[in-house]
Structure formats: C-alpha cells, structure tokens
Amino acid sequence: MVSDKREDQGDGYRPQGATDRRVRADAKRNIDALLEAAKVVFATSGVDAAVREIAEKAGVGVGTVYRHFPQRSDLIGAVFRREIDACADAASILAGKHEPFEALANWMQRYAAFIATKRGLAPALHSGHPTFEPLRAYFEQRVRPALRTLLKSAAAAGEVRTDVDADDLLGAVASLCMSSHNDGPDHARRMVALLVDGLRYGTKSSSARSSRSLR
Amino acid sequence: MVSDKREDQGDGYRPQGATDRRVRADAKRNIDALLEAAKVVFATSGVDAAVREIAEKAGVGVGTVYRHFPQRSDLIGAVFRREIDACADAASILAGKHEPFEALANWMQRYAAFIATKRGLAPALHSGHPTFEPLRAYFEQRVRPALRTLLKSAAAAGEVRTDVDADDLLGAVASLCMSSHNDGPDHARRMVALLVDGLRYGTKSSSARSSRSLR
C-alpha cells in the first residue's frame, strides 16, 4: 500500500522500490529461462556446449549468461541445484494430488527422471571442482526427506512395507537409471516400477494387481 | 572291465588307458584348483595379481599355470567361463531343491554373487582383448535360459507375474550390484530381494509376508 501511494506521485518515474522489484522479477525470469535452456542444451550437446547455444535458446544475450554465471561451473551447479529443488518439491505436490502409494510410485519415477538429468551432468559433477562440493549435501538435505515423508505416509496407510530405508531406495533407483546395463529409459521405468511393487508386497493392498503393466 | 583285466598283466606298469585317465583327472583337478585360486586372488588383489600368488594358493607350480594358461587373458577368460557355468548350473540345482518361487529368489541372489565376481574381472573383460569377445555370447547362451526356466516355473505355479522379461531382470540385478551407488553387498542383496518381491506383487501368493526381512 505504501508503494502504491508513492506510485501516485505523478512525477513520471516509477518509485525505486517498484523498479527494484520489477528488475528482480525480470532477472529471476531470465535466470529461470537460462537454467531451463542450459539443462536442455547440456542434455543434448553435453556440459561443454557453447554458451551461445544456451543464450539463444533462453532468448537472452551471451553477456547475460556471463553476468549471472561467470564460470561454466557456476551454470552447471545452478542447473543441478534447480533440478534437486524441482525433484524435492514434486514430493509435496504429488502428495497433495494422489493417495499415499500413488504419490510415492509417481515420485519414484520423477526421481528416476532427475537421475537421468544428473547422468548428463555427471562428467562435470564428478570433476572434483569445488563449486560442486556442496551439492551432495544439498541433495541429501532436500531429496532424502522428500522420500522419507512419502514412504512414511504410504506405510501409515498400510500400503507399503515398513522395513525399507529411503537411502537404500534412492541408491537403488540411481543404480537402475545410471548403469551401463540400463537398456534406456523404458527399461529403467519398468524396473523402478517393479522395485516399487516390491515395496507393497505382503501388505493389505498386495492382492490388487499392479495398475500398470510392466511391458 | 577291459582295463581291469589289462591292469592284472603283472608287468609293473599301468596300462596306457588307465594312465591317460588318471593324468586327465589330475589335470582337471589341477585346473579346477587353479581357477578357484585365481578367482579368489583376482577378487582380493585384482586381475594383475602375481601368477606366483595364484600358483601357491592352488598348490601347483608356476609352470603348471603357464602350461595350462599361456597368457593372463586365458586364465581370466577361463575363470569367468567357470563362473558363468556355476551360475547357470545353480538354476537346475536350486529348482531340484526348492519350490519354484524360492528357487527363483535364491538364484537371483546367486546371480548377484556372480555379478560381484564379474565386477572384479571387469577391467580385463572390458579391455577389448579378443580372448574375451566370445564370453558375452557364452553368458547369454547359458545364463539367460537358466533364468527363463526359473521364471516360467514360478509363473506356472502362479507365484510370480508373467509380464517381466528375463533380460530386463538380468540387467536390473547387474545395475544394482555393479553401480557406484551400490552401498556394498548387503545393500545389493536387499534391493535384489525387493525387486524379486515386486515379481510376486499381485499374485495369489502375495498376501503372504516376505519370509525374510529386508533389514
């Protein structure tokens, strides 16, 4: 309300507070478009893709890329951090839309998609560059609790067994999705679904047939 | 009977046929001890372990090792081939001892142990050396039908679902056991058990609780 009053001053200039907000909103939109573009370009052309290609896809200038992310490692780190956030946030979104088991099963596939993105970034992430060091901790801080909450809800509803550890599952899905024995995303999707069905074997809901065929 | 008669000739010499058989039996025993020793030594000291270490463990001379396996690649290939045979043969042995599902579940863990051995040999197996080229085909020829038979029996008994492909499962277990996300053999064992429980989700036997806890 205060700023509304100041915008009515009639001097032809936006008051500083509103301008700052607009600039910040524009910058956030630019950064978001940039990170989305970088994610897609890294996935198709690898993490050494030309900055020009990323800038063009995002609809921003090359200078904007360098202003926000002086080093390539900054950009790669920011893309990965955004993917961690999106994956973790998906847990509560799915929990709001679905029954506990369905939320869990859907999230496990969402996590598999996250791992596929991580696979593309792996050459950089495993390079030992200091920019990437905090990301492991960030992943654990955000993704692990997300799965724990989903597991807990599904277990409380009697839909999954209670003797499976979230870390075990995260590691297993990562193994299924990143291995060279992986026969592509369809194979990974089927095997993650099989693992998730294993979670509900022996529960009250286990006499129901899996809703989706594995073929 | 013929050879028994010849052994009664009283000239102080074993007849040639019996000697050949004895030599062949001795050689087979030597080779078997050698391959078992090589397997263990490769697993602990890597595939570049000293031939002397392998010979000592097998209780044979170094010359015996070189006589049977002139090149290190011959020895590595023979170790791997023997492991493939043992893993494939385990399927019918387990099928003879257990109910179909138990045979399948036990074999999947046996296959996981095979993969752990394969992991140790991987640096050699993936070196592109021509000795190892036929082993992929040999693996598929022996191990794939072994699992198919077990799956078919368990499906016929109504104990596992019918929409899972043997190759998918072999790949998934290999992924779970060989990945860097693998937290050791216990983690792999638990996750293979979970995958196997997924196989029986939705079948008539699925209301029974898994006999083994995953913890």
Account of the protein in words:
2 copies of one chain form a homodimer. Helix content of chain A is 73%, strand content 0%. The first copy, chain A, has helices spanning 2-7, 16-45, 51-58, 62-68, 72-97, 100-125, 133-156, 166-178, 185-200. Chain A is built from 9 helices and no strands. The N and C termini of chain A lie far apart (58 Å). The A-B interface holds A 161, 163-165, 167-168, 171-172, 174-176, 178-179, 181-183, 187, 190-191, 193-202, 206-210, 213-215 and B 161, 163-165, 167-168, 171-172, 174-176, 178-179, 181-183, 187, 190-191, 193-202, 206-210, 213-215.
Largest sheet of chain A: none
**Low-confidence segments of chain A, ≥5 residues, pLDDT <50?**
1-10
Q: Give the tally of β-strands of chain A.
A: 0
Largest interface: which pair?
A-B, 37 and 37 residues
**Mean of all residue-level pLDDT scores of chain A:** 86
Rough outline of chain A: globular
Distance between the termini of chain A: 58 Å
Estimate what percentage of residues of chain A fall within beta strands. Answer: under 5%
- What share of the residues of chain A lie within helices? over 70%
Element pattern of chain A in H and E: HHHHHHHHH
Calculate Rg of chain A over CA atoms.
22 Å
* Tally of individual helices of chain A: 9
Q: How would you describe the oligomerization state of the chains in this entry?
A: homodimer
Name the structural class of chain A. Answer: mainly alpha
